[in-house]
Amino acid sequence: MFDEKIEDDCSLPKATVDKLIHSTLASKTLMAKDAREVLRSFSKKILIILAGEANRKCEEEKKKTITIDHLIHSLRKYELERYVDEVEKSTKCYLEYTKHKPSKQNKFKESGLTMEQLHAEQQMLFAQAKKVPTTDGASVDELEIQIDDVQEIQDDKSNLS
């Protein structure tokens, strides 16, 4: 009953699975529609099994977050060791990518502007937006726009310190 609910609630994106199938097959090879559906269904089930085992291991360790180690444990438990190297390689690439990806939190810190300057810039952008007509003909002045309170933000920041 639980498995049926999971199957009804989620599915892998058809276009994504079809794209993976197409990129894997030889250029002139086709896969029948029913074969693609079976593969999609099987893929979903194997993901549920692996995620379930990773979750079980995570709970066993009294952790709240499933990690790569939990996923690798799942692969090994179901004798899928041949994929462990690829998972570790992908993880290493992802971690390297995240080191160089700019943080959204640092975006404003690195701007060199004070909170007051950022607030003034926000006000200016709202004023400019009011001048542009909307697609439905409504006036932007009629829309409710929530503007951040600079003092409230600064108070929140100082309370966190």
From TrEMBL:
<dbReference type="InterPro" id="IPR003958">
    <property type="entry name" value="CBFA_NFYB_domain"/>
</dbReference>
<dbReference type="InterPro" id="IPR009072">
    <property type="entry name" value="Histone-fold"/>
</dbReference>
<dbReference type="GO" id="GO:0016251">
    <property type="term" value="F:RNA polymerase II general transcription initiation factor activity"/>
</dbReference>
<dbReference type="GO" id="GO:0051123">
    <property type="term" value="P:RNA polymerase II preinitiation complex assembly"/>
</dbReference>
<dbReference type="GO" id="GO:0000122">
    <property type="term" value="P:negative regulation of transcription by RNA polymerase II"/>
</dbReference>
<dbReference type="GO" id="GO:0017025">
    <property type="term" value="F:TBP-class protein binding"/>
</dbReference>
<dbReference type="InterPro" id="IPR042225">
    <property type="entry name" value="Ncb2"/>
</dbReference>
<dbReference type="GO" id="GO:0046982">
    <property type="term" value="F:protein heterodimerization activity"/>
</dbReference>
<feature type="domain" description="Transcription factor CBF/NF-Y/archaeal histone">
    <location>
        <begin position="11"/>
        <end position="74"/>
    </location>
</feature>
<protein>
    <submittedName>
        <fullName>NC2B</fullName>
    </submittedName>
</protein>
<keyword id="KW-0539">Nucleus</keyword>
<dbReference type="GO" id="GO:0017054">
    <property type="term" value="C:negative cofactor 2 complex"/>
</dbReference>
<dbReference type="Pfam" id="PF00808">
    <property type="entry name" value="CBFD_NFYB_HMF"/>
</dbReference>
